Amino acid sequence: MKYFLLTLIFLLPFQAVANDTCSYTYTVWNTAQKRTVMKQKITKLRSELTEAEKGPFNCTICKEDQEIVTLDNDASMKLCRHVAEKIKGALNQVLKEGYDIQSLVGYRPSKSRGPVDAKGNRTQFSQHAFGVAVDVNQEFNGLYTNCQEWGPTCKLIKGGTYDPKKPLAITAKSPIIPAMEKAGLKWGGFRKDSLKDFMHFSPDGQ
Ligand SMILES: [Zn+2]
């Protein structure tokens, strides 16, 4: 018993430190080279998190705040634990209604939005970095630039070619849109600027 208590006294401080730690590995997207150019591992105390490392719904970039979400059809991804249940419910509902979900991307820390620095690197974390954004069936719902409205000017920059007539293509009338809105996520196909992210759902649709 004595030894047990001694061990406990030794281990307790370590446990406290472990719970207080935030770690994540992030990549940086370079717009000039059109590829990921940097990978960096960060470990710090939660009390040291900057505003840039905090997202909506009390979610953070810390991998410790993410959990695995598995849908009824076994498709899975990681999401922020504060939104995971809601989004899982919405996507399971959509599956029941007959829309097949073949691929999902949730938590993925990367700087892929915001202003570009002198080297062409993006400088802000995407909503995926906080586990609050979801890409659905990216093979059928690409990200396009030069795309104020869907048409021949649009240029594919990520994911698969978008053909609104295909069954897995997400369109303005797809039931997945109101289902995800109920869970707090807007569709990237409704963006008002020249980007259209047909696979993407996030709190601000960007
Ligand atoms: Zn996305």
Question: Please, could you describe this protein's structure?
Answer:
- The protein is of the alpha+beta class.
- It contains three helices and 13 strands.
- The chain has helices at residues 2-19, 84-96, 176-182; strands at 21-30, 35-45, 66-70, 76-80, 104-105, 110-116, 122-125, 134-136, 143-145, 155-158, 186-187, 196-197, 200-202.
- The chain has a four-stranded mixed β-sheet with strand order 2-1-6-7. A four-stranded antiparallel β-sheet has the order 5-8-13-11, with helices on one face.
- The longest helix has 18 residues, at 2-19.
- The radius of gyration is 20 Å and the shape is globular.
- The mean pLDDT is 93.
- The chain binds zinc ion.
- Zinc ion binds at residues 128, 133, 135, 197, 200.
Q: What is the overall pLDDT average?
A: 93
How many structural domains? 1
The main sheet comes to:
4 strands, mixed
- What is the tally of helical segments? 3
Distance between the termini: 57 Å
Question: Could you spell the SSE succession in H and E letters?
Answer: HEEEEHEEEEEEHEEE
Residues in β-strands, percent: 25-35%
Query: What small ligands are held by the chains?
Result: zinc ion
Uncertain regions spanning at least 5 consecutive residues: none
**How are the strands of the biggest sheet laid out side by side?**
2-1-6-7
Which structural class should the secondary elements be placed in? Answer: alpha+beta
Q: Estimate percent helicity.
A: 10-25%
Rg over CA atoms: 20 Å
In a few lines, what is going on in this structure?
This protein has 206 residues and is an alpha+beta fold. The protein has helices spanning 2-19, 84-96, 176-182; strands at residues 21-30, 35-45, 66-70, 76-80, 104-105, 110-116, 122-125, 134-136, 143-145, 155-158, 186-187, 196-197, 200-202.
